[in-house]
Batch of 3 targets.
Target 1
Amino acid sequence: MTSKDDKTIRVTMKDVARAAGVSQSTVSFVLSGTENMRISAETRARVLEAVEALGYRSRAAGRPTGGQGHRVIGLMFDEIATSPFASISIEGLQEEAWKQGVIVEVVMTGGNRAHETAVLNKWAADRVHGVAYASILTREITPPDALARHKAVLLNCTDSTGRVSSIVPAERRGAELATRTLIEVGHRRIAFITGEPWMDASVQRQEGYKRALSVAQIEVDPALIVEGNFLPSGGHAATVALLESAQPPNAIFCANDLMAIGCYEALKERGHRIGETIGVMGYDDQEVAQHLSPRLSTVLLPHREMGQWCARKLLDSSDMNPEAIRLEGPIMIRQSHLGVCAPETTA
Amino acid sequence: MTSKDDKTIRVTMKDVARAAGVSQSTVSFVLSGTENMRISAETRARVLEAVEALGYRSRAAGRPTGGQGHRVIGLMFDEIATSPFASISIEGLQEEAWKQGVIVEVVMTGGNRAHETAVLNKWAADRVHGVAYASILTREITPPDALARHKAVLLNCTDSTGRVSSIVPAERRGAELATRTLIEVGHRRIAFITGEPWMDASVQRQEGYKRALSVAQIEVDPALIVEGNFLPSGGHAATVALLESAQPPNAIFCANDLMAIGCYEALKERGHRIGETIGVMGYDDQEVAQHLSPRLSTVLLPHREMGQWCARKLLDSSDMNPEAIRLEGPIMIRQSHLGVCAPETTA
DNA sequence: TCAGCTTGTTAATTTTTATTAGCAATAATT
DNA sequence: AATTATTGCTAATAAAAATTAACAAGCTGA
C-alpha cells in the first residue's frame, strides 16, 4: 500500500530538462561534468537551479538500496590534511555513521576538479547514501556541479549559492567569548595578533575580538592590533613589537595556537611570567597547546561535532531543507590567560 | 588510451540472472523489493547469492559498454589519525594512484573487526583494484581474513604470517644514523630517552642507538639510558634526571619529538644553550620540530614514500611476490644537535 | 473434471540515462 | 565576403533497469 503511495512520480532528467528549457542530454552533461562537452555557465546555472527546485536526485539516492549491502557515505576533502582538523571531523562523522551500520569512504582530491568529478560520478553509480564535501580551510566555495546529484552537506565551508546545507565553526563568537574571558579575569589592555589577512578565519576572529571589547565598553586601540601570519615566527615578531610599544598590553590574544608558541618565546625572553605578569590566549586547541608551559588557554574548534552533524543530517532522510550552521566551540580554560589583575592597575 | 584497456566487463542484471538461473526481470524485482510482485524465498536467496558472487552493483542506467569506470584502491586505517603520519601516507598513496587515474578511498575502522570485514566485503563487491591496510602504530598485526580476497599490502605494519607485502620505517637504522650524526659532530657522552617500552618503535630506536655506539667503539653506559613516555612531560623528567646525575651527557637523543619539547624546557630552565652547550636530537620530524628554538634536528619518517610504494606495488600487476620493506628516512639536520665540539675535549 | 484463483516467473515493453555525432550560430581568419 | 574554427547545444541512439502484462503450474471447491 505504501508502495503505491511512494510512486510519487519520479523526477527524471527529462523533467529537469523541461524546467530548465534545455534537452535531457544537456542535463546529463552538466551533472556528469564531462570535460569535452561545452556548456555555458549560464545554462549550467539554469540546470542546477532546476535540479534543486525539482529535487532531482539521480535514482533514489539517499534511500536505502532496496537490496542488502552496507550503505555508504562519501566524504570528500579538497586538500590533504596536514593539521589534525580533518582527522577529527572524519572521526566524528565516521563514528556517528557506523552507529547506523553506514560505512564512510574518504577521498582526498587535492582540489582537482577532474578528480572530484570522477569520484562524485563513481559514487553516483554506487548509489551512495550521501556526500559530505569538506574544505581544510574554512571558506566559501562553489561546489562541483556533480555534487548536485547527491544528497550533500558541506563541512567546514559554505556554499556561495546557498543550495547545499553547511556547517562551519562560529569563529566570530568563539573569538568574542575568548576575549570576554580575558576581560573577565581583569585584563583591560588586550592585544590581538592577526593571522594571514586573506583568510576568513583571521578576519572573523578579529571581528569577534573587537565586538567583545565594544560590549565591555573598552575602546579598541589600533596600536594593540598587530599583523601576524598564523606561524610561530609571526607570533614572535608581533609580540616583540607589542612589548616595545609605548603602552604594552597586559594580555595577548593570538589568532591561532602556532603564533602563541612564538608569543611564549618572546615573552619568556623578556622575563615575563605567562599567566602571571601577562595573559595569553590562543585559538584552535592544537595538541601543542597542552604541552606549552604554562598550558595554553585556547578556543576549541568543534570539528568532531561538525562531523557528527554531517552524518546525522545525511542519514536523516526526512530532513531535506538546506540550512547553514555556525557551531560554537568551548574555551579551553587553562593557565596562560590569567595575569595581572585590573584592581592593581587601577589602584 | 589506458581507458580503452581497462574495459572492466561490467556485471549487469542479465549476468546475475544467468548465474541464478532466472530472468533479468526477476533480479530487478528482488533487488528493488517491489511489494506486489511475489518472489519465492528460495529464488530470492539464489538471486542474492549470485549478486554477491558476481559482485553486482546497480549502476546508473544506460551506460554503454564504454564503461570508463575508474579503478579504485582501498586504504584502510585501523585507528583514526591524530598524528599527521596518516595524512602524509594517504597523500603519497593518493598522488601516485591518481597519476594513473586511480581513485583512493580511505576508511577508518577504529580497529573494529566487524567494520573492517564489512568494508573489505563491500570493496570486493566493488571490484577494487587493491587494498592497503595501514596501522597508525608501527607494529606486527594479523590482518583480517577478508583481506585475503584482495591484492593487498600492509602500510606501517608487518604481517605475522608473512603472506602479505609490507612496508615500515627502518627505525633501527634511523636511530643508528641519528646517533652517528651526534657522534660525528663530536659528542661522546650521548644519552637516550626511551619511549613507552611496550612500543616496537621505542625498542628498535634504542637498539639503533646502541648499535651506533658499538660501531663507534663507545661504551654503552646504562646510566645514560632513561625511560620516557613519548610525551613532553616524560622528556622533561628524564632530562632533569640526566642533568642531575654524576656524569651528565653532552648530547641527548630523544626517542620522539614530543619528548624533545620537554627536554628543551628542562635544558633552558638550567641555563643550557641548546646546540651550543648541549646537543639534542629528536625523532619523527613532527611539525613542531621546525618551530622549536633552536630548530630541532630529527629523523624524518618516510611516510610519503611509504604511501607511494603502496600505490606502485598495488598498481604493478606484474609484481605479485610478497616482500617486506624497511624504508629509511633522512636525518633532518638543523641546529639542535650541535654542541661542545670534540676537538676541544680531545685537545 | 474443470472454472477460478493464487503463486512465481518471464517475455516484452517502457523508462531512464549516457554518449556519439553533428548542427546552427557566432567568432576568427584569410 | 568567403572560409574555417569554435562554442553551445540537441537529436538520435545505445544500453541498463523498471514495469507491465501475460502465462504456466498448482490448488480449491462444486
Target 2
Amino acid sequence: MSLRYALLALVRVGPQSGYELQKQFAVSVGHVWHAPDSQIYPELRRMEGEGLLAGEEQTRGERGTRRLYHITPAGEQAFLDWMASPPDYQRVRDPAHLRAAYLEAATPAQGRAFLRAHIAQWEGELEQWRGELVRIDAADNPMLVRRLAVTADEDRERTIAYKRFAYEGLVERALGEIQWARSGLDLIDRLEGAEEAP
Amino acid sequence: MSLRYALLALVRVGPQSGYELQKQFAVSVGHVWHAPDSQIYPELRRMEGEGLLAGEEQTRGERGTRRLYHITPAGEQAFLDWMASPPDYQRVRDPAHLRAAYLEAATPAQGRAFLRAHIAQWEGELEQWRGELVRIDAADNPMLVRRLAVTADEDRERTIAYKRFAYEGLVERALGEIQWARSGLDLIDRLEGAEEAP
DNA sequence: TTGGTCATGTAAGTCGTTACATGATTGG
DNA sequence: CCAATCATGTAACGACTTACATGACCAA
C-alpha cells in the first residue's frame, strides 16, 4: 500500500493533475514503484475523499477539464507518519530463484535461455537506474528540480544525497543479479559441457 | 502464478498430502516462495480439477481422512513446460527504496530506525538461506533427500549444484541489502552528524 | 483533418492477506 | 485427559493486472 505515499511524495512538490502524476510515474518514482493509470486515478479520488488531497477542477479550452490535486496538511502529515512508521516487508516470492533451484529439470539450452533472460531483464533495470543517477547529478530530472526549488538551501544536499543513495542501492542490486546469472551460465558449462557454437 | 509450480516441484518427488506440502513450504520452497495454507489447499483442489494432480482419499484412525496428491503426467509436463517458458517479471515495486529516496523528510532517528529495520529484515532472510545451504551440503533437507533418492546417480550432482546456485544468489542479495543499509547509516552520520550515545 | 497527447476513468479477474472456523488423532 | 499437531478449509477484503472505453485539445 505504498502507492499513496509515492503519490504524496510527488504532490508534495506542488499541485499536479492525475495525468501529470501518471506521467511522472513513468520517469521518476516509477523507477522504484510502478503503477498504471488505471490505479492512479481512482487512488487520487480516494485520497481526496480521505482528505489527504484537495482536488481543484480546472477548465481546459472550450469543454475540457482537468483536476489539479493539492496536498493538504493531513496529506503532508500522512506522508511524514509513513516515513516514521516501521517498514513492512512482503514475504519472499521469487520466481527466478524458485526456477533456478530446479534447473536440473531443464535442458541446458533452456537453462541458458532462462539465465540470459534474467540478465537482459536486470540490464534493462540497470540502465534505468543508472540513467536516473546521471539525471540526478545533472539536475536534469524535472521533479527533482521542482523539489529543490521549494527546498531550503541547507536541505538540498540531503535531498540529493538520499536520492543518490536509493538509486545506488538499486544499481548494486541489478549488478548482483547479473553477476549471479553469469555464474549460473558458467555452472551450466561446467555441469553440462560448454555450449556448441550456434 | 508460480504457486502451482512450487507445488508441482514438491509433489514431483513423491505423493504428499496438503498438510505435508504446507509444512514443506515453511522449510524448503517456502524460503523462495511463501504461501499460506489458506492458499495451498484450494490451489491443490484446482490443480486436481485441471488434471495436474490426482488426489487419493485416505483414512486416518477412526474417522479422520487426508488427501494424498500424486503428480499426473499432465502435471509433470506442466512443470517441464514452465521450466522452458520465458520467465515473467513483475514491475518494480520496492517500498524500501521508495522510502530511502525521500529520507530527507525523516528525522535522523527515523532514518536510522528504518535502515536498522532493513538490516534486521535481511539478516533474518540471510540466516534462513545460509541455513538452507548448510542443510544442502549436509544432505539434511528431507525434501532434497527424497528428491535424490528418486534421482539417477548422474543427476545428483546437478540437482545439488542448482539448489546451491539458487541459495547462493539469495545470500548474495541479502548481503548486498545489508551493505547498502549500512552505507545509508554512514550517510546519515555524515549528513546529520553522528548519533548521540543513547 | 488527422494524429499525438492530454485527460479520466470502468470492469472483470487474479493473486494474495488476514482472520475465522472446525474437528480428529496421537503421544505423554 | 490434555496439548500438540494433523488435517482442511471458508470468507472478506485489498492490491494489482489487463483490457476496454471515451472524448477533448492542439499543432502540422
Target 3
Amino acid sequence: MGRAPCCDKATVKKGPWSPEEDSMLKNYIEEHGTGGNWIALPHKIGLKRCGKSCRLRWLNYLRPNIKHGDFTPEEDSIICSLYISIGSRWSIIAAQLPGRTDNDVKNYWNTKLKKRLLGRRKDGQHRRSQSAAAADELPDGDSTNDAGGERPLSASAMERIQLYMQLQNPLPAVQHHNPALPWQQNTAAQSNDSFNSNTTSTSMNVTVAEHGQSSSQLSDHTLTGRQLESAAAMASPSSGDNSNVVTIEAELQELLYGEGSQMRGGAVDGGVLQVDVDWWSYDQGKQSPVNSWDFTTTETTSVFQDYTSVYDI
DNA sequence: AACAGGCACAACCGCAAACCC
DNA sequence: TGGGTTTGCGGTTGTGCCTGT
C-alpha cells in the first residue's frame, strides 16, 4: 500500500530555514559528518526537519565553496551546450560547474537563460494546433495517444528543438564523444580510440556542422520531409564530414549576448568547446524520451513536424 | 503611497535508482 | 533474491522582492 513517508509530516517543520537551524546543521555536519544517514540526522541534531530537507539545505546552501548568482559567460555556454545535448540533467550539468548546484543551474536556466535564448519565439503560442492545445487539457491518464503512437511534447523537448533551430538551420549535427548518448551507441565500438574506458574522465566535444546560415536567418523555414530525413542522417556520427565544423560557442554567444558579441574567455580549444565530463561514472543506461534524443527515430521526426506547426517555421 | 504583476530563488514533492539486510 | 529503506534527481510550488502603473 504505497511507500512509507520519509518523515512524520505532522511534526516536521517546513518552509524557509532560520539562521539557527542553518548553524545547527552546519556545525553538526562539519564536526561529525552526515553519518551516512540523512533521515536520522535531524533527530541527532534536534532539528524538526525532514532528512531530505536537511540534505537539500546542506547541498544547496550550507556546503563549503558554494557559489551563488553571477553566472559567467563561460558557465552560460556550458549550460546551454549541455542542455542541448543531454537535456535537463541538471546534476550532470552542475557537475561541470564547480561550486554550482543542480538547483542553482536549474533555476538559472528556467528564469534567465531559457528566456534569453528562446525569447525570440514567435507569437506562435496562440497558433498552436488544436490537437496540441487539446492534448494540454487532457487529464494525465489521457495524455498519450496510444493508437497513433503520438505523445505530447514536453516543454524540455520543445525548448531543445527550438534551441537547435535557432543555432543552426537546417538541423545541426551535434556530436558528442560520449558513448552514453543514444546516437553514439552505434559507433561506440568504432570509436574506442576516443573513449578510453581505463580513464575516469574524458572530454566531450560539442560541435555544430556549418551550413552557412547565421542564426538570424533561422526563423522562417519550412522543413520538408527530405530535410527531416537529412537532419536525421546528419545527426548520425557516421555522416562523417567534419571539415566545416564550427564551434557552437559562437552561435551561443550570439544568442546570449547579441550579434557580433565576442567570446569573453572560455574553454575553447581548437575551435571546439571542451567540456570535461565524467562520463564513466555517469549512468549510461538512463534514458528517457524527454531527456535523450535520438535523431534517427520516427518519433523525433514527428516531434520536429509538430514543432514546425507549433512555431510556424 | 498603494497595488498588481512579474521575477528570482529557496524549498518541497514524488518518483526511481541504489543500497542494505 | 526480495523487500524495505535511503538517496538522488527533476519538476513544481511558495514566497519575498522589485518594478511599473
